[in-house]
Amino acid sequence: MKPEASNPNSSAASRFDAIIIGAGFSGLYQLHCLRDRLGLSVKLVEAGDDLGGTWYWNRYPGARCDSESHSYCYFFSKALYEEWEWSERYPGAPEILRYLDHVAIKFDLRRDIQFGTRVRSAHYDVADNHWIVEAESGQRFRATYLITAVGCISSANVPEIPGLDSFKGKWYHTGQWPHEGVDFAGKRVGQIGTGSTGIQAAPVIAQSAKHLTVFQRTANYSVPARNAPLSAEFKQYIREHHDEIQEVVESTPNGHPFRISETRVFDLHPAERQKAYEAAWEKGGLQFRAAFQDLLTDKAANDTAAAFLKSKIREIVNDPETAKSLADIDHPYAAKRPPIDTNYFETFNRSNVTLVNLRKDPIERITPNGIKTRDNEYELDVIVFATGFDALTGTLLKIDIRGRDGLCLRDVWKAGPRTYLGLQVPGFPNLFTVTGPGSPSVLCNMPVSIEQHVEWITECIAYMRDNGIERCEAAPEATEKWVEHVNEAANATLLPRVRHSWYLGANIPGKPRVFMPYAGGMTRYRAICNDVAAKGYEGFVLTRSGQGADAKAGTALNDFEAAADISTPGV
End-to-end CA distance of the chain, in Å? Predict the structure, then answer.
């Protein structure tokens, strides 16, 4: 290797074996694995002033996890799992942040994290086989391995509505929420957006606001979360059944702590089916989606769930016109992210809450005093944008990432993201992405997917170091075959049928309409990744020190389906 001073572009860079970007669930575990298991020198850089990732930025009213607490955590350490005690079925943002702080203290992670460091660029130096990472401050780091752990929903989407700059009041995006909070008392609040975030935020905002006006473009399903404090008995069960719970989350398609029913919708007579739906509604949460095996693969089956949920909206909401607008849902149930809520539909029975159906009366502009629709004007003191994120690719593409021969990731992904296993991109050696596009990511309980990714990346780097391999890079032919498989998996479900889904990037003007996550299920994905590793990292080009590329490793799998049972889709 050349001396550090020989390269003028990296002479001032601090040198490490690995650089990790992002201090959420992914980055923290990746730091622990590379530093404490492999003994590497590692620096984790984080844009925020503290750890937490998604939960550091998303502190909006009602921010809460939609995975059950005893599964929304790490499983790699049995001692960690048994010593932490969750308070609720679905933990709120403050409790999740306390958990991650506990993890950081237990494993002494903070000493290798640099906060307040937003990455501007990451360029690969082929001569030295290093990544040169530059922060917006101008500080530089260099490392053999670069791992992006920037999160799937971390790039806030503020829609370009004319007149926003003229608004005299305050406006906020839920994904960039002030850490000191926002006082809505006595305020006229307008909330734009009724996805998962808006469904969580509206009931809480309505409790203190003088008036809340919810602007709905796309009506959405939602199932009651039935959130409640965990009983002492259940807490004891969690402490005593780590292995059993881990086995369930790692063997189910979505990584949740419950099995999906093997019963198909039309196996039951209508009365029995109604009874099953009522029981699932009372149980609440994402377990409603697990009531039948074929809800996301059979449109006729899905129609029965959709009809049930729409009838519940009409039962709950008192005003017939408001109920009609809320139940005017134009997509299959769970084909978009399926929200769960606490009193969302009940909120529209409050005298201080109004629903505006933007399909009938679209927003024209924001005025100094509020929001002007085609037919009305609403005077507001505060506007809340619950408008989601430039998901899966947004944060990565904000960084100027350049690989071999100056290849720019923005150019490579101009027509949509193309990865091998969601882990690597051809032309970008030793760059690994945790839960990137092309992996189960947002279709899964995230910590389960994150642990699998981090452990696979760690084992790959260990394999490289043990075998004198300098570079690992996804092969183009393997990448193309994986992209085809990702599309096949999606098309076996109802997911791609939703034209306005953020799974396809449809919420971002100009973004390519490509289904980004892998819908084949976490269980199947894990088996494929294990098979790839067992075959000497098949589908990757491995270059040894002083030698050429390993041709065997550059050969794509003949058939991804051969690595796992694919008899049913994994969503």
Answer: 46
> In the structure encoding, which two tokens stand for residue 175, read together?
């994904």
Residues 466-523: tens digit of each pLDDT: 999 999 999 999 999 999 999 999 999 998 888 777 666 666 677 667 778 899 999 9
pTM of the model: 0.93
Q: Which residues pair with 171 in a beta bridge?
A: 383
* Cα separation, 294 vs 291, whole angstroms: 9
User: d(Cα 424, Cα 420) in Å, to the nearest integer?
Assistant: 5
The alpha-carbon radius of gyration of the chain (Å, integer) is 24
At residue 119, does pLDDT exceed 50?
yes
Q: Measure the CA–CA gap between 424 and 457, rounded to whole angstroms.
A: 10
Cα–Cα distance measured from residue 379 to residue 93, given in angstroms and rounded to the nearest whole number: 31
- Quickly list DSSP for 379-441: E-SEEEE---B-TTTHHHHHSEEE-GGG-BHHHHTTTS---BTTTB-TT-TTEEETT-TTSSG
> Pairing state of beta strands 14-21 and 140-148?
parallel
> How far apart are alpha carbons 22 and 54 in whole angstroms?
10
Nearest to 96 by CA among 142, 54, 138: 54
Q: In the chain, where are the structural domains located?
A: 4-51+109-155+391-563, 164-385
Q: 123 - beta bridge partners?
A: 132, 402
* Fold of domain 4-51+109-155+391-563: FAD/NAD(P)-binding domain (3.50.50)
316's tokens: 């709950």
Three-state DSSP state, 524: helix
